[in-house]
Write a structure and sequence with these properties.
homodimer; about 280 residues; Porin; 2 domains; two-stranded antiparallel sheet; 16 strands
């Protein structure tokens, strides 16, 4: 480990005054009198296009709500998108504890507009000091750094307000910024306005890249609807930008599934996100 | 695609009289008067050791309940294990529709013992005819077939009743059947008594292999407690055995995360399962 000295026995803690973008402010997530209930106004700033909530922002709101309500850092979340939330909906995001032990809290987070469920999520939070640590499996190839990569090129009408707030660079692709995949694998650099904080919710926003990978893999302008966004957090770390290592795993019967390994520029694995989506002709 | 001829417009259907093990019977899942409510008596037959429900059997019960209640094939499920269910608990497994469209049903499945939640799951079901199809990413190396591999060797006291009913062979490991990993990746063949049916629930049972991969990676007798079992279904297929291609992705702060690609013997990707677990000294 070589870094245990300054760490609390419970392992990592949610970051309070950490460097990088303040994620609750970034999302526009608002506290209420009930610490387990937060409000997420769906503004253009968190939409991915056509006034629809960006999936990664939905997952991030789940993460922030669960971390702030429980006081523990998130380690796993799966968020299902049930009904599209669109501007100007206001989502009531509610955290419910299913079990809370000495180290770990498990719960559900539900997002409702009026009484209608738009997000349904499962979450686990809490870590502990234990020396078994490491990262394994495919590492990214040598790639040019973010500043040497072209800004990702997207169809403008699908860009949405969120896309204007995150810096995305095509690390595998054409010189004009179109992301390309080889054997279903594609790479992007992504960052937030004030850098990437050591926060699971930041990784949730940036790690929502499976649909990008699907488009790069099929080289076709497919319509995709996310079923879920899921995240497994290894250890968040503040950094200038993250490398999204996107692997589309398989597609059949109108669905595509993919996995994203989220890396620091110096090759630390921060998280693994994954997603299933419905694909169809646009 | 080259196989569309005999298929219904909705894509694959849940299998009724398919070859291979009947999964509801295998699990001992019992119908009730309410089609959305099933009963799962926790018997030694579905336990992984020390009288505790095997995670893959919990996920499989969720899958079977959702498929039977909705009449649609499962494509994604994430199942959180909240409290340990042990013999002789009887779990009431309840499917709740959150939204049901022309093609896709999304819902929640909750397992309770008495009033206590022991399983909390999210599910999506339903497919459609669409030509975009494929599989991408790392393929398994050339490995000996199941019959040429040694039966997996486990510590007997942790074997449990379920382990006696599934045939597991170490495809990467020592000649005595101990599974070994290289760069966090290990391989097992796994099968059910009457072969593997074309069923998501069979893949849920067999695909619960991350803890095996963690033990193989750390080469240590660690205690592991599953937080969740999740599955993304590409397309189930009946086969003699499945190859479990287990990749431990990362571990830190008392948690380990891993991914399993589930393959047919001839290299078709059936599903991707994943899991997070708490690890600690035994």
């Amino acid at each position: 480990m070589g870094e245990a000295a300054a760490r609390h026995d419970d392992g990592r803690q949610p970051e309070a005054d950490a460097p990088g973008t303040d994620m609750a402010a970034f999302l526009g997530l608002e506290a209420t009198a009930d610490p387990a209930l937060w409000r997420l106004p769906v503004t253009e700033d968190i939409c991915g296009g056509r006034g629809a909530l960006y999936g990664g922002c939905g997952l991030a709101a789940v993460v922030e709500t669960a971390e702030r309500a429980s006081g523990r850092p998130l380690t796993w979340a799966a968020c299902q998108f049930v009904e599209g939330a669109t501007t100007p909906d206001v989502i009531e995001v509610h955290f419910e504890v299913l079990t809370a032990g000495r180290r770990v809290t498990q719960g559900r987070v539900t997002g409702r507009v009026g009484g209608r469920v738009v997000l349904a999520a499962l979450v686990a939070l809490g870590t502990r000091e234990f020396p078994a640590r490491g990262q394994w499996g495919p590492v990214p190839p040598s790639l040019p750094p973010p500043h040497a990569c072209t800004t990702r090129r997207m169809n403008e009408q699908r860009r949405g307000g969120l896309r204007l707030r995150i810096d995305e660079r095509a690390a595998s692709g054409d010189p004009d910024g179109v992301v390309r995949a080889s054997d279903g694998r594609s790479f992007l650099w992504a960052s937030l306005p004030d850098g990437v904080p050591a926060s699971a919710s930041a990784l949730a926003v940036l790690g929502d890249a499976v649909s990008t990978g699907v488009a790069a893999t099929f080289e076709d302008d497919l319509r995709a609807r996310s079923i879920d966004n899921s995240i497994r957090v290894v250890r968040p770390q503040a950094c200038e930008a993250v490398l999204l290592d996107v692997q589309v795993d398989g597609a059949a019967d109108g669905l595509a599934h993919g996995t994203v390994r989220v890396w620091t520029p110096d090759g630390q694995l921060l998280a693994v996100t994954s997603q299933s989506g419905l694909v169809g002709p646009r």
